[in-house]
Specification:
2 strands, 9 helices, elongated, mainly alpha, 3% strand
Length: 229
């Protein structure tokens, strides 16, 4: 039998992972793109993409991350000549993404697949732990909620104090150095400018804080209902 201390530790870590990945999944959606592209103040593309263009190609990019297609799914996407940066001579269109962008998107897909596989394991761990020992499970969830609040608070301070450095360290953690840097004229930057990552970080922070607070409230209610306190 797994000890209560081990169950608490597993659930502490699992909750943080689940809250983070739930927020990420909400971000990687057509709805989030629509809100971002249409909200007042979102930076326009200086190279010609309209909000509708961004929606069309941004949705395809998001779809690639969750389908079973190889990177050829993105490689076959083409831009009309009017949207091409440095339009090719004697051509009617141009590729949406360059080879370096395609390689990065392939890397992103691998990271996303691993992260959501880990989240699935965390969800299973949560269910099993609560079934094995609900008291230890609830205690672990409470610790996980406090850990989430602590980590989000710390990461928030770091991001606020040095966003550029934090942004670089985050990408360097998951991707080969330099493989994620692109000119502003490349489609990945035109579709996903830095502002979208700032907004995403704010959303993740807010979602995790609210989620952690709800977990604390629910655990307290559950313990009272079962005569735990």
């Amino acid at each position: 039998m797994i000890s209560s201390h081990v169950l608490k530790l597993l659930l502490t870590l699992a909750l943080f992972c689940l809250l983070m990945m739930t927020a990420v999944r909400l971000l990687l959606s057509h709805e989030f793109l629509r809100i971002e592209y249409l909200r007042p103040g979102f930076p326009a593309d200086g190279y010609g993409f309209s909000a509708d263009d961004r929606m069309r190609y941004g949705r395809k990019t998001i779809d690639y991350l969750f389908n079973d297609e190889p990177v050829a799914f993105l490689e076959k996407l083409r831009l009309p000549l009017r949207l091409c940066f440095l339009p090719p001579a004697d051509a009617e269109d141009c590729p949406l993404f360059k080879q370096a962008e395609l390689r990065h998107m392939r890397d992103v897909k691998h990271v996303i697949q691993f992260a959501f596989a880990l989240a699935a394991v965390c969800a299973l761990t949560l269910v099993v732990a609560l079934l094995l020992d609900w008291r230890a499970g609830l205690a672990g969830l409470q610790l996980g909620a406090w850990l989430t609040l602590l980590l989000i608070g710390g990461l928030g301070v770091v991001a606020f104090a040095a966003w550029d450095s934090a942004f670089d360290r985050f990408h360097d953690l998951f991707f080969a150095a330099g493989s994620w840097r692109f000119p502003h004229s490349d489609s990945l930057i035109r579709l996903f400018p830095e502002q979208i990552f700032i907004d995403a970080a704010l959303f993740i922070g807010a979602f995790c804080v609210v989620g952690a607070c709800l977990v604390l409230a629910l655990c307290r209610w559950a313990l009272r209902a079962r005569g735990g306190i």
